[in-house]
Amino acid sequence: MSISFSFPADLFGILGILTTVLIYQMRTNKYQLVWKIATDVLWIVYYALQNNLSVVVITLVAILRSLVLMCKKKWAQGIWWMFIFMAISIVSSLLVWKDWTSLLTMISSLLCIAMYWYRDPKMVRFITVPAAILFIIHVILNQNWMGLICESFLLVSSIVGIVRLDILDKTKKQNE
After folding, report:
1. Could you read off the pLDDT of 93-129 as tens digits, one per residue?
2. Which of 50, 28, 58 is nearest to 145 (CA)?
3. Would the pLDDT of 1 be above 50?
């Protein structure tokens, strides 16, 4: 396996990596979603330049999901939206199917849809771990090194967030 770099795609990948780290350090779901949208836009450009349509489509669905989640209107609050986005994710994944590794992206996407829908930053951090592992397997098999770096940072960032915000904060509050 060889590592190659392609400019300008890798520039978007580097920016995507930098913004990904911030998502799981946020204390509120609103700010997690804002950074998630910013990150997703950068990754769409990156993967489009890499001609990886399965990831582009899944990421477009993720942006739409995040926008609905951020909406405070009553119509946007129903749990049925989660199932709509899951169905869209499955159908769109099947439409741009590359090979069996597309299944890893689809399952990871379904986990992400569910975790963000619960609007609980702690749940987001915990469910990110298996979702990131699935995507890490996908990017390794597809030799996408920027994706590997990003997902590794994402996995580490979510674990740091779990330790910092869910374990140490809880211990600190119990000791007060």
Report:
1. 899 888 999 899 899 999 988 988 877 888 888 999 9
2. 50
3. no
Q: Are 148 and 136 in contact (CB under 8 A)?
A: yes
Mean pLDDT of the chain, nearest integer: 87
Place of tokens 């946020």: 26
Within-domain flag for 4: no
Residue 92 CA to residue 160 CA, distance in Å, equals: 33
3-state helix, strand, coil in the chain (%, to 5): 80, 0, 20
155 found inside a domain: yes
pTM, two decimals, is 0.79
pLDDT at 31: 86
CA distance 175 to 172: 5
Q: Report, as an integer, the average pLDDT of 30-45.
A: 91
For residue range 146-169, what is the model confidence (pLDDT) as tens digits? 889 988 988 998 899 899 988 988
Please answer whether residues 157 and 23 qualify as being in contact, where contact means their C-beta atoms are separated by less than 8 angstroms.
yes
CB 17 within 8 A of CB 153: yes
Provide the domain count of the chain: 1
- Residue 57 within any structural domain of the chain: yes
Instruction: List Cβ<8 Å contacts ≥24 apart for 81-84.
Output: 81/117, 82/113, 82/114, 82/117
State which residues form the domain around 77: 9-175
